[in-house]
Amino acid sequence: MESVQQSPVKIDPGFSDLVQTSAGLNVNACFQCRKCTNGCPVTFVMDIHPDQVIRLVLLGQKEEVLRCSTIWVCSACETCTTRCPNEVDIAGTMDALKEMAVKEGIQIPQPKTFAFHKAFLDDIKRRGRMFEGRLMQSYLLNSGELFRKILDGSIKEEISLGWNMFKRGRLPLVPKGIKAKKEIKQILK
Ligand code: SF4
Ligand code: SF4
């Protein structure tokens, strides 16, 4: 019988400390009760569950955790963080891991989600709050969705949605800024 060669698991012993200190996150307190996973509304589209993400961080399995799609499909609803009996900020950890994956140049398994994430953060960095018109423009262009929607005709639905939002005053034509722009930039740094 042929033996199956498994590639050795790469361990980064400083990874959990890095996650812990870089975002002030208390991952070490996790005792694997799985309350986070049991309350998460999007586990059905995750490749690994939220409690497993925390476990992999603690085990120093950086590669595996930064390459998983879970950190990108997480909707940041914070249910997990609220449910955790040990006050582990799982939602914050997901965010910190996203930023690490981007910095490490890892190929993002959810490119459209990444395009939305980037468009959203760029907008917040630029003016301190989101401007829906710019966000959609940037997302549609950078994700390639604009061309797809033009080709299959579904762009009409986007235009109709935008028009309806505009009529109801939900889509301003001019972006609004905020006073504390510098503070927001500092937080995002
Ligand atoms: S709820 Fe908290 S303690 Fe329980 S598995 Fe999730 S992170 Fe760990
Ligand atoms: S923040 Fe993310 S991981 Fe936590 S419950 Fe919501 S979707 Fe699930």
Topology:
Layout: H1 15-22, H2 35-39, H3 50-58, H4 62-67, H5 70-73, H6 79-83, H7 90-103, H8 111-127, H9 132-143, H10 145-152, H11 155-167, H12 181-188
Helix pairs in contact: 8-9, 8-12
The protein binds iron/sulfur cluster (SF4) (2 copies).
Main attributes?
189 residues; mainly alpha; 2 domains; globular; binds iron/sulfur cluster
Could you walk me through the main structural features you see in this protein, from its secondary elements to its overall organization?
With 189 residues, the protein is mainly alpha-helical. The protein folds into 2 domains: 15-103, no CATH class; 111-188, no CATH class. The chain is 58% helix and 0% strand. It has 12 helices and no strands. It has helices spanning 15-22, 35-39, 50-58, 62-67, 70-73, 79-83, 90-103, 111-127, 132-143, 145-152, 155-167, 181-188. Residues 39-40, 42, 50, 74-80, 90-91, 94 line the site of one iron/sulfur cluster. One iron/sulfur cluster (SF4) binds at residues 39-40, 42, 50, 74-80, 90-91, 94.
